[in-house]
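Hi team, as promised in this morning's meeting, here are the two structures we talked about. I've kept the exact order from the run log so nobody has to guess. The first one is mostly here for context; it's the second one we should focus on when we meet again. Sequence first, then the predicted structure tokens.
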Amino acid sequence: MAKMLLCLAVVALAALATAAPKPEEKFTTKYDNINIDEILANKRLLNNYLNCILDKPKARCTADALELKRSIPDALTNECAKCSEKQKELSEKVIRHLVEHEKASWDEVKAKFDSTGIYEKRYEKILKEKGVAV
């Protein structure tokens, strides 16, 4: 009888542990306050970020560029579910800048992260509503 109660207790604890809500996973907000306008206005800084995320030879990746590079695939796949509101704003601003001013770089980014065009199709309507013509 004691063994049966112990077994039931273990099963009940296991059920509670798996049913307990897990904290929502988010991307780090450590870099949310970077000056994105300064980066976009400075060709050298922008190219450093682009070279890093595109795995260009001799690219020097800063900590924030590495974090961005690691986050892009998940953000695309999961509709930026782990993004903060600030990260969504910054993403839109960067995409707009690349599309309007750095088309060749935008094409390279798309080739690396969206070679099949699935994400462009998925987000095209949203971007157009925000005035970004991809």
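And here is the second protein, the one for discussion:
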Amino acid sequence: MKKYFKIIVTVSFLLCFFFNNAQERILNFDTTIKIEHSGVIQVNETITIKAEGQLFVHGLLRQLPLNRKDIDGNAVDVGYTLQSIKKDGVSENYFTKEADGDFKIYIGDKDIDLPSGIYEYEIVYTVPFQIGYFDSYDELYWNVTGNGWDIPIDKASCTLYLPNENATFGNVNAYTGYEGDKGSQGTASLDSNKTIAHFYVTGLGATQGLTVAASFDKGIVLPPSKIQEASSFYKKIKNNLWSTVFGLGMLLFYFFQWKKKGKDPVIKTIVPEFRPPFDWSPAIVGYVYNRAVTDGIYMASMVQVAIKGAIKITSTIEKSLFTTSTVYQIEVLNASPNNLSEEEKALFKPMASRKKIIVSQTSYRVFEKAYKGWLSVVTKKINVEDYYINNGWEKTIGFLIFINVGLVFLILSHTNGYMNYFFYIVLVIGSSSLTYWVSKTVKGSGWIILRGILCFMWLLPAIFIYFASLFFRSWIEIGVQVAVFIGYLIYSFNLGKYTVKGAESLERLEGFKLYLETAEKNKMNMLKPPELTPALFEELLPYAVALEVDVAWGKQFETILELAKYDPSWYSGDDGFRNSSHFISSISKNVSNSRVDPTPSRSSSSSSSGSSGSWSGGSSGGGSSGGGGGGGGGGGW
């Protein structure tokens, strides 16, 4: 039994040993860093790999982050200058590209597969802006391996050299583990003269890394230049600076655009008018006042047709076990009336050949034709743009300008993480050019179609990218852009403008509406309004409906109609004519529903290297794995 047990243990050990040795991995990651007097550092990475043709197909991929944060948390763009690339001591083919916030170095030949074996790659590069300048010391805080490797690293080491032999290091620390880990399984030490710093760790797993930090006296490395200090100061304030410029600039732009294109002419003091202005029909009064066609205006015309004697509206109350409903019926009294306006004739025409019509969806064809005919006449009779300019196109242009300037703002205020500036600049140039073209009048269907296609292909993605980018911005940037967007909505809502003719008409319509709302009060003034009688009530009721003041108009006549025992010839019902507002509200819903077809329509049914870290006094023990500059990660390709 013991014999079999020994065999099993031996075989298991051999299998584990074989698997461990067959697995692709980094056997050794050794880095030498020379800190120059200028502040630039020269990095020499020697990476020994075991390749089995799975991950390392053509060679090694090294990824270095294109930005890091400075002491104040501002993003600093990082540029790498490659000095040499070697494999096993011999210069090797490579190519580079920037993508996903990384500078990627592809070492090897895409047309040649890498045979299984052990290979030593050497990458030498220089990189500026990696020294942290503190009040009493300076520091290098550097991610040696980075945390972006999906394979284990058996050994990792780093050696730091200062610019001259007399310079010495102060505190040194090493951090290992996953990104953000503050502990260390490695060692950090200085030679006897404190002129060389050594760091060493073994057994790093996938996405684990080594980060080192070493402090040294001020003056060993040149302090930041005036240009660098100015650049650092600008980066501190640029978020607030461009947020202020963008916010105030866009709000001022919208204000002056509104003042230029949307400010209404001055309307004089409103004086009550006792007759409909310009002898307009109820439909035209409502259309010009509301600047649009509404169901209330259509209902006003129908009431007017009834009051003029062409039809009579009757209502019947039907009760069931649980509900009570009012059924309306239209009875044709005069098939050839001669006192109707054009739009009232168009409304009445589909009804003229019938004696009685139930106001329900069973008669939808009649009411559909009546509404379409009425609508056609009303919209042709009056050109609303003679009275009111909506400036809808200006609103669209204002929104596109908001998007374009917003994209520029995102570029200028960018402080956090990598940004593909080339992509955003091309996007802004393209969308701005299209916006300018869209703002100009073009002739010919071909040009219009081309413009539409380009807008769909370019402007829609630009709009999407702009709003999607907001999720990655600071709260200040988001707040400013929300405020500007609210400003745009206010601008858009108020950009419509009355013409001089429209302002004069509105002035008189407001006076007429004022009278309809306050007729009883006006009896006491010196304007001598007409006497309130049932006849006056009927005459102006359709206008009150069109101007949506029928409730106020009706209340002023409640006592008068009751004393006169008002029984209109144009309406009869089971409950009598209790009040105009109840009648108008009830029949309006029925008439609106009666235009709807009751038949339902048919319908068809490699690993990312991660973000680079920041200076945080890592040499004093406040750092973490992945917290410094450099690092990144890599793999095979």
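Starting points for discussion:
The longest helix spans residues 226-261.
Confidence is low (pLDDT under 50) at residues 13-21, 602-608.
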